[in-house]
Amino acid sequence: MSNNIKKLTFMAVAVAINIVGSKIALFLHLPIFLDSIGTMLAGIALGPLAGGLTALVGGLVNGVLGDIYAIYFSISGVLMGVLAGFLFHNKKNSWVLLPLKTLVVTLPASALSACIETFLFGGITSAVVTTFIIQALSQTALKLFGSAFLTQAVTDYVDKLIAIILVVVSMKHLPYELTHFEENKKAKEKVAA
Do 122 and 144 meet the contact criterion of CB atoms below 8 Å apart? Predict the structure, then answer.
């Protein structure tokens, strides 16, 4: 099987993980989304492009499956997947820097999500708890955008930190060949030469 087919299969599994996580979060009315575990997995294992594409496809499929908000928020997922790929792919991921790197992944995407929430949906999302918090905080000096950004930043950070920790831990237990496609390809090319 070629490396490209392996990568596409890996990304398809990552999309499925995003969809299952999203459905669990919606069903349980969690204040976090669980829709980016697969995105982080693809970004960390395969790089920025794979992370972004996984988020985009996952968001579009989730939208078709009934969560119309997921289509719009897939743009911020793409940003997170790309950033995660740049910060974590082929890098030593120390536990000390993990929270800081997660913050770098989260903040730009949270700002983008807050814009989507504020200007497209008036602070309403598919997450009931998050919507309630945004609407309550919008009555304070934060107003709608400030409350959307603060809520997104906190929930996104917790959500992405959980996702990245799960991915980093699980990658240590997955077969090396499954998570290091480029290195395997280079090793095979060396042997063939």
Answer: yes
Place of tokens 């090396």: 176
CA dihedral 132, 137, 142, 143 (to 10 degrees): 60
CB 110 within 8 A of CB 156: yes
User: Does pLDDT of 178 surpass 80?
Assistant: no
Classify the phi-psi angles of 127: left when phi > 0, otherwise alpha if psi is within -120 to 50, otherwise beta.
beta
- For 98-150, write each residue's pLDDT tens digit: 999 999 999 999 999 999 999 999 998 878 888 899 999 999 999 999 999 99
| Dist CA 11 CA 25 (whole Å) | 21
Q: What is the mean pLDDT of the chain?
A: 91
pTM (two decimals): 0.90
- Round to whole Å and give the CA distance between 93 and 72: 31
Distances 181 to 37, 39, 82, 185 between C-alpha atoms, Å: 19, 17, 18, 6
pLDDT in tens, 66-108: 889 999 999 999 999 999 999 999 888 889 999 999 999 999 9
